[in-house]
Amino acid sequence: MQPCLNCIAPACRASFGINEIIYNCPKCGGLLEAKYDFSDIDVHLLKRIWRERRMENNPLDQSGVWRYRELFPFLDDYNSVVTLREGNTPLLQSVRAAAYGGLANITFKHQGFNPTGSFKDNGMTAGVAQARRLGMKRVACVSTGNTSASMAAYASAGGLDPLIFIPNGNIAYGKLAQALEYGAKTFQVDANFDQILALVRVLTERLGIYLLNSINPFRIEGQKSIVIEMMDQRDWKVPDWVVLPGGNLGNVSAFGKGLRELHQLGFIDRLPRLAVIQAAGASPFYEYMREKGSKPFEAQGHPETLATAIKIGDPVSWPKAQFEIETSNGVVESVTEQEIADAKAVIGHSGIGCEPASAATLAGIRKLKLDRNADVVAVLTGNVLKDPDYIYRYHTGALQAPDSSPIKPNFGNAPIVVPNDAEKITALLAG
Ligand code: F0G
Q: 171, 259, 279, 336: least CB-packed within 10 angstroms?
């Protein structure tokens, strides 16, 4: 069997060539996913090869994505790959954060260590490779900031023109700055993420531009490497829980697919449970799953959260996400602005740090009251420097929720203004 794109809709399951430029099933509109013949996979051999590749100087092997290329073999050759040494992100422990989350231990898989500072790089290197293989010249996305930063970097590194569409005034400056610096043509649109996605889909179709939002199945293939690398780093010991923030729900779709494939092929002996955490003001998937999918999925017209990365009311990948949550016996939770802000400060005070959306994980863990001895991996999706404005406001007591209610700096650490006077500072420190 050649690699192909399959419709995931149970009533359709149509199959298409791997080189077709489609993002939804042309027959029924369903979501697409890549399928492969894995019959030649040798688990023990691959586990060894992947370890050995960490020692190699070949850029493909040094990449924490392409090192695991046998599990997403959609390319004929690797000439179209652009790598910036993505992946290779650490597992970090924090006693402080574990205690805050009601756990004996917690492990963070910190995707903020990626070249552009978020987990998007794992998927973007794959999406851009497919764009180049197809001979596309221009690529586009709508973004709450991280996808655009990542796409700008990988497209420019690969000689493609990146076109970025962002909700005006609603993305963190660190991310906008990256897009500009990496040379993307950047359009600020007076509309929200969901509305702009519809616009970008029209434009990409009309102008023959390759769409690199997470609806693109090759982005999902690359993002599978996050859980593959995590399992490799854990010597294939399966955690009880993998917790991640949910926005457009591409990442949970990728994690679920990656873990299922690892399980089916025999790399791991069971599936961890997935927990997706949404911001309360942008929680359509939480609301839907609370009703156990018994009512039709309903988009939220006016999503609101200071965690702008996950400010999404109409997540395109919800059918995939529902399948992965149900298959892994997972859960979906929602957390308030105050809960996100406090959890973020705790992660920061652990010396680890992350952007607001990422902190929804620890806030969610605390709320879910997991078994104290559970083995939990929380995925920190973005770097602390993505949104410094939020940090300064929180610590100085100036942060306000979208409805203008104040956020209390429960773990605030405001800078102290002092005179240029050793005596006075000494007295202050003694106090
Ligand atoms: N965390 C961060 C830091 C993100 O940037 C995003 C998504 C998510 C979590 C949610 O992941 O969409 O796969 O459920 N950011 C997208 C963007 C939407 O445009 O950068 P998801």
A: 336
Q: Given the structure tokens 């999503």, which residue do they identify? A: 303
310 CB under 6 A from ligand 1?
Answer: yes
Spatial distance between the Cα atoms of 258 and 268, rounded to a whole number of angstroms: 11
- Spacing, Cα 247 to ligand 1 middle (Å): 5
> What is the distance between the alpha carbons of residues 15 and 373, in angstroms, rounded to a whole number?
44
pLDDT on residue 1: 86
pLDDT value, residue 294: 82
Nearest-Å Rg of the Cα atoms of the chain is: 21
Residue 73 amino acid letter:
P
Residue 63 pLDDT class (50, 70, 90 cuts)? very high
Q: In what order do the strands lie in the sheet with 376-380?
A: 91-93, 107-110, 376-380, 241-245, 273-279, 331-335
Each residue of 259-269: b (16+ CB within 10 Å) or e?
bbbbbebebbe
Mean pLDDT of the chain: 97
The domain locations on the chain are 1-37, 91-117+217-395
How far apart are the C-alpha atoms of 137 and 160, rounded to whole Å?
5
Sign of CA dihedral 117, 224, 233, 341: positive
What span, in angstroms and rounded, lies between the C-alpha atoms of 407 and 359? 15
pTM for the model:
0.98
143 lines ligand 1 (CB under 6 A): yes
pLDDT digits (tens, 9 = 90+) for 366-378: 999 999 999 999 9
Is the CB of 355 inside a 6 Å radius of any atom of ligand 1? Answer: yes
DSSP-assigned beta bridge partners for residue 107: 93, 377
Average pLDDT over residues 260-268: 98
pLDDT digit string, tens, across residues 208-253: 999 999 999 999 999 999 999 999 999 999 999 999 999 999 999 9
CB atoms within 10 A of CB 416: 7
What is the C-alpha to C-alpha distance for residues 142 and 202, in angstroms, rounded to an integer?
Answer: 12
Positions of E strands within 253-296: 273-279
Write the CATH number of the domain with boundaries 91-117+217-395: 3.40.50.1100
User: By alpha-carbon position, which residue is closest to atom 10 of ligand 1?
Assistant: 247
Q: Per the structure block, which two tokens stand in for 286? A: 């939480």
Q: Is the CB of 118 under 6 A from ligand 1?
A: yes
